[in-house]
Amino acid sequence: MKIASVIQRFLNDEAGPTAVEYAVMLALILVAVFAAIxxxxxxxxxxxxxxxxxxxxxxxxxxx
Length: 64
What we know:
This protein is mainly α. The protein has a domain at about 25-64. Helices cover about 95% and strands about 0% of the residues. The protein is built from 2 helices and no strands. The chain has helices at about 1-10, 15-64. About 0% of the residues are buried. The mean pLDDT is about 90.
């Protein structure tokens, strides 16, 4: 009877699915965070490159 009660307890335990749900939610949140960081990084890089180009243009114009 002891084995049957252990099996019954295992089948009724809901901690496993809850942990899996939390892991899936965490994975989705991490994907969203990484996508946001990548987008902000690309935008910032483009803005900084534009600033560098404008400064170079201004310096070259002033030197001429």
